[in-house]
Here is the input.
Amino acid sequence: MSFSSTIREALLREPAERECCLRAELAALTQALGSLGFRGGGQFSVTYQTDQIPLARRVFVLLKEGLGLSPQLQIVKHARFGGKKTCVLTVEGADAPKLLSEMDMMEAGEDGQLTMRRTSPRPALNRQCCKKAYMRGAFLGIGSMTSPEKSYHMEFTCPEEGMAQQIERLLEKADIPARHQTRRGKTVVYLKSADAIADALTLMGANQARMELENVRIRKQMRGQIARMSNCDEHNDNRMMDASLAQIRAITFVRVEYGLYPLPPALREVAEARLQNPDATLEQLGQLLDPPIGKSAVNARMRRLMSIARELEQKLAAQADEKGSARFVTPAR
Here is the structure.
């Protein structure tokens, strides 16, 4: 499974419970996947196309439960492409203008012909939850990411310039540096640094994917450091690397899910020292603190951090079991 698929699976499990978030995500998916079709008598339809059945199912539920529309779902099998299937969702009749009106994405061109406006959808995206929902929909529709084992690269291939500008604005407000370029007539917004990608994953709510990215980054850093330690005993190096890696994983998990600031100052100080010095021994970490402490004291604090991470993981797992599979909640009318 590709890293992009891992992110999508995680995002598809995220519920869109608030009405504002539901509309924000649907706006991104409409910008990414929607197209306008015209019929006789001034009638038009909005069509969504994707080769991902779970994504088609999500768009269907967003339209039906979120806006009260009645989309038609059709699965087209292409004999010329090895039996590849495409999911086609169509919103027509009175539902089509209602959809575009709700999203504030309908406008008349210079010739009076109706078109779909892909910029500035109605969701203002001022709330953090709406930004998260919009970025989630954008990645599901047009996002991809290279395996971090190879390189750090995330991109959004936008069908029109307006959507690219919207994504760049959201990333800029979150202090995430992004670039863009034109490729095959489409604007591509992309991120090239591990820190930027990690922050973008957090912004869209893909915390588990961020954890996996952090693990890969730690492994790459540790491998590079170990390769330069030619005068150390191989067995001790591996044991130290494994212990340090386990500690950094636990601390990163606590930082992402809980934050380091609520921790007691003594634990927070050791956690930050370990993240900044992944190859340091416990004794060396103790000497970096102010005031310095001994190896046994550092070890005791580290065990407490690992215990907090385990307790937090068990708590989140219990909450997930109680919640069950993610469901969409129909907004109150």
